[in-house]
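FORM 7B - TANDEM STRUCTURE REPORT

SECTION 1: FIRST PROTEIN
SEQUENCE AND TOKENS:
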Amino acid sequence: MVGPLRMDTHLAVSFRPRTECAYDVVALGEVMLRLDPGPNRIRSAPEFRVNEGGGEYNVARALSSCFGLRSAIITSLVDNEVGRLLDGLIRRGGVDVSMRRWLPFDGVGRVARNPLNFTERGFGVRSPLGVSDRGHSASSLLKPGEIDWAHLFGKLGVRCLHTGGIFTALSHSTAAVAEEAMLAAHKYGTKVSYDLNYRPSLWQEAGGAQAANELNERLLPMVDVVIGVQTPARAAGDPARSPNGPKRALAELSDRYPHLSCVAVTRRIVHSASRHDWSALGWSRQTGLVEGRDQENIEILDRVGGGDGFAAGFLYGLLEGSDLRLALDYGTAHGALVMTTPGDTSSASLNDVRELAGAAADAFFR
């Protein structure tokens, strides 16, 4: 079992040396075109602003645009004007797209499509709302054998492969691609990060939470860093806001999967759509349980992408060799900042993150 809570311990997740690798992080996932109605509702919006987003992609983009690391995305797009728009948006975020696959456009989208995501931000008593249109997306059609993993992990070199439960839920073939990628990553010494990221809408016709858990049972033995142990958002004053639930979940994971090096989970207290408390809890085999710094009463403009923002900040800390608590603080600070701007992706700077993360972050850079 995991030991007692410790507050100032050292973390060591042994990534490949930076000098041996072309990339710090490669993400495997779907990239969607987000249509944002601003302060309006989808049903009555006179116009939409577009940007790109996707659970796994958002992490790679933030690690490039905010944290200055070398990142790439493995995804698939349909070669039409919408796909070219997405491709340009990805490039603008500083993410390498050289491993992106193009599928031909059939003129209608019967075979393959570029996915869309209509997203309301929510405000006050009105919760955020997402309406995705992603059936038969190009990424969902990715199949094993289509990516040269030996070239990527063996010849080019990657320190961390990041994927998650959104990509693996798209289809049976994407789950198989993720499994293939994880096996290849370990063969060449690349660490695997996996965000559980359960989405009921993706699983409602594929077996629900039970099927998602069965897939995770198959994949987690090949994972080094798990992010996002499922814990529901809690209303203010709810006695279930106690951290004991996440602690038990972390303990169970650590006992069940001996290959795991590190686990992190965010804890969100929802006062309204516009005001949250935000914190994180982590565990590693070297440190036991560690609590990060709380971000209380943060003002929310757009909550979508906050969890991906946490994952990016947390992975940045691990890749830079910080201790576990500081990695958690980078995660919560960056996630909080992501939720202050519109869109899924990060507009934060490293100085923004360091300032919000506090004195420990400044000391790490001195």
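SECTION 2: SECOND PROTEIN
SEQUENCE AND TOKENS:
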Amino acid sequence: MTAAAGAVEAGARGIGSEELRLPAELFVLPLSPSEHLIYAPLRRAALIANTSLVRVLRGMQAGENGLDAAPEIAGLLQSCGILAADKERAPGASPAGPPKPTAVTLLATSACNLRCRYCYAAAGDAPPAFMNPETARRGIDFVAANAAASGAPSFEVNYHAAGEPTTHWRLLVESHLYAREVARNCGLRLRSSLTTNGVLTAEKRTWIVAHLDSANVSFDGLPEVQDANRRFPSGRGSSDIVLTTLRAFDHAGFRYSIRMTVAAEAVQRLAQSVAFLCRRFRPRAIQVEPLYRMGRGRDAADAETAAFVEAYRAARRTSPKAAKLVRFSGARLGTLTTRFCGVANDNFCVSPAGNISACHEVADERQPWAERFFYGRFSAGTSGFDFDERAYAALRAHTVDRLEHCDGCFAKWSCAGDCYYKALHWDSAEFAGAGRCEISRALTKDQILEKIAASGGVYWRG
């Protein structure tokens, strides 16, 4: 529950020469009937407290007693950073002026070599779209010119799709070679990455390792779990090919991460899946997400449950490596931000048709809610882009400090309101929290307690 809402000051001098104050946002989270977690997110500070300390703290907030009345407690709150002279500030400011991105995500195609049973884009259900080379070159030219004009040392080209980007192989290869040439001509470094399902030939693996900086591979863990979810159109499972890809990446020392989707029926096998990956492979991270009920997964059983939270915790306990690598996108204590992702920060994703989306999951102008995410298009007769100021201003305004359903949540400055696009797919007309919110809060609280434990077991000061 919230212990304060709005600016609250301790209003006393008595410790040092500075006026000390409690933070404007301070939360008291029950751990047991006699133990509580006190958390000040914007001061990156937390403390384990008993009921008596909480009672004194609430008295300070209510102005019933000052710091001089409880100097030992005031000293403890000051030492852990909860009591301080400064006023905490919310993070981040929105971009100003027309978008000037230095990274482009090429949404190369909606074609796919798999028919994953929960695909958010339902790839393969409709005739595929393919980006043409000129579209890719215009996107690359635009971000490279922005990087050069701003004095940035590099620009990024990322390959994604509403299907599998490597099925449009010629575009991937030719656009990357073009981007390298642009980088040389501009005196910039090119950074490049690929999101892939890992169903690759030996030749494609070799090229990726030789030319790209990193990859994010979608893979669900145990072979039998992968094969139940991620199949070829024929119905054959894909685990053998993806496992070969992971082994090839490891052999080459190539940087990659793994993205796991957890369906409701596979929740109980999550720990085994994570242990399997950690024993056999060397990913830089393992992102674990419950199935999103959209696209082909629209009617699937809900996986955003308390069972997922317990399975996630069990997965991290399988090994020190797992504890380090396993992540959930809504729980990221080390981050203080108003934005969950680049949607509110001029994300520059080029659709196959050449239009600009703020979200890599919104690649088709006919998708539900597409009008909220598309904000630009080719400039007629020029090499640049025209942007819809109303559209990008609305996207920039989608920050957690403006989301009513996030007000009063202790995790809001790290979760940052979660994924805008997925929230729109809930049945209610106005999103007001969901199972993912409960997951984010539970796992963020776990992270706070881990920080406290690593700092001696009493408090954490970030």
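SECTION 3: OBSERVATIONS ON SECOND PROTEIN
The two ends are 22 Å apart (CA to CA).
Residues 12-89 form one domain.

SECTION 4: SIGNATURE
Preparer initials: ____
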